[in-house]
């Protein structure tokens, strides 16, 4: 099978890839720019941390809203509206006169960012249907690429102009180019509305009995996975410092984690054309569990690489698997991103009290427990699909 079956699919796929680089850049700017935003608004670090809560709340509202909109309206105009909102937030964030205004701007940014994320995922699923797995992995690699480039954009802006504002404005200018790409082509149609879909194609089926159980299990898996990813990325530096690592080398562990995660998502693209997504999930989760259990015994740099590689393919593989198991509407995609947002808020909050009350020895066990629960969840999901009579579909070649 060719990489792209026609020029239309090639163009819309590239559009969604570019959109994911944009939202990766947008989300990746907040952390490195935090000291500058605190100085801008005169806020302390405890107060400026409210920006993460505002962004998470915007994420959750955006995930639900875009699902309803994409189901009822053409997807590309919806994404164009969200791009305009994101560019507006990027423009205003470094000009905010107070913390209250900045919190509102970051809320809008989080809303638009996750709306583009969920909308692009849904439309890419509609474009490729059961062959979407490798393309979803490539899509999420673009997001990780944007995350990695964001600190470099900030450094370049500071060296070029001495003003951090240009990092936000530069990303905003790049995001504006998406409007031309989105306007160029019509929106992919939902599978059930597509005339070329075969009657027996699983993606054209109406919602079946048992879909609610599958969706609930998938939402729990996405919540646990995102929680595990954010917990590791957010707390590994603090854990390393508490273990006696120098602050400089401890800070590099997050970079190693994101590098391994990006490389793993790139590697997953050909792997999903060769092996079952179930086997890829089991391999990733097994590596994640082994990495967590080995934390007390090995240097932390191979742990960061191993955990990043383990985490890399879980989200895109699970998301591609959704499309094999049920009809994926915008609403269902929105619910999955809502669950992901809840996991990102709730699970990392466990790490602080654990480190404070039980010491550093509790952190590896928290990570191992999350991976163990994910393994159990995948086993339950597999059993549910077998109970319904679902089977692995042919791999995209």
UniProtKB/TrEMBL annotation:
TM segment ranges: 12-34, 46-70, 77-95, 101-126, 138-160, 166-182, 214-238, 250-272, 279-298, 304-322, 334-355, 361-381
Keywords: Membrane, Transmembrane, Transmembrane helix
Signal peptide start-end: none
Region (Disordered): 188-207
Organism this protein belongs to: Bisbaumannia pacifica
Listed name of the protein: Major facilitator superfamily (MFS) profile domain-containing protein
UniProt cross-references to PROSITE patterns, sorted A to Z: MFS
UniProt-listed InterPro entries: MFS, MFS_dom, MFS_trans_sf
GO MF annotation terms: transmembrane transporter activity
Entry-linked SUPFAM superfamilies: MFS general substrate transporter
Chain ranges of the Major facilitator superfamily (MFS) profile domain: 12-386
Keyword ATP-binding: no
PANTHER family reported in the protein's UniProt record: SODIUM-DEPENDENT GLUCOSE TRANSPORTER 1
């Amino acid at each position: 099978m060719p990489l792209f079956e026609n020029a239309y699919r090639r163009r819309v796929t590239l559009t969604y890839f570019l959109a994911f680089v944009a939202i990766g850049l947008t989300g990746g700017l907040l952390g490195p720019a935090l000291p500058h935003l605190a100085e801008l608004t005169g806020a302390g670090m405890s107060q400026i941390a409210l920006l993460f809560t505002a962004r998470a709340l915007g994420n959750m509202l955006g995930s639900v809203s875009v699902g309803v909109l994409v189901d009822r309206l053409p997807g590309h105009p919806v994404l164009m509206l969200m791009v305009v909102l994101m560019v507006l937030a990027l423009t205003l964030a470094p000009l905010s006169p107070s913390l209250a205004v900045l919190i509102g701007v970051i809320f809008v940014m989080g809303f638009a960012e996750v709306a583009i994320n969920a909308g692009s995922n849904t439309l890419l699923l509609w474009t490729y249907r059961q062959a979407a797995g490798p393309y979803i992995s490539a899509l999420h690699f673009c997001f990780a690429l944007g995350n990695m480039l964001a600190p470099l954009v900030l450094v370049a802006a500071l060296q070029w102009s001495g003003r951090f504002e240009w990092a936000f404005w530069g990303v905003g200018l790049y995001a504006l180019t998406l409007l031309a790409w989105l306007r160029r082509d019509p929106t992919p149609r939902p599978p059930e509305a597509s005339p070329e879909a075969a009657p027996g194609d699983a993606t054209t089926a109406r919602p079946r009995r048992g879909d609610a159980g599958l969706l609930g299990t998938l939402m729990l898996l996405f919540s646990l996975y995102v929680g595990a990813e954010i917990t590791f990325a957010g707390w590994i530096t603090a854990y390393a410092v508490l273990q006696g690592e120098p602050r400089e080398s401890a800070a590099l562990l997050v970079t190693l984690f994101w590098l391994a995660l990006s490389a793993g998502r790139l590697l997953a693209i050909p792997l999903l054309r060769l092996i079952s997504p179930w086997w890829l999930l089991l391999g990733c989760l097994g590596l994640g569990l082994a990495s967590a259990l080995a934390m007390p015994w090995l240097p932390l740099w191979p742990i960061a690489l191993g955990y990043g590689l383990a985490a890399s393919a879980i989200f895109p593989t699970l998301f591609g698997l959704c499309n094999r198991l049920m009809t994926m509407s915008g609403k269902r995609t929105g619910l999955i991103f809502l669950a992901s947002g809840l996991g990102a808020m709730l699970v990392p909050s466990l790490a602080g009290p654990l480190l404070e009350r039980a010491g550093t020895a509790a952190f590896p066990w928290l990570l191992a427990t999350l991976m163990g629960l994910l393994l159990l969840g995948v086993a339950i999901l597999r059993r549910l699909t077998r109970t319904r009579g679902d089977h692995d579909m042919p791999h995209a070649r």
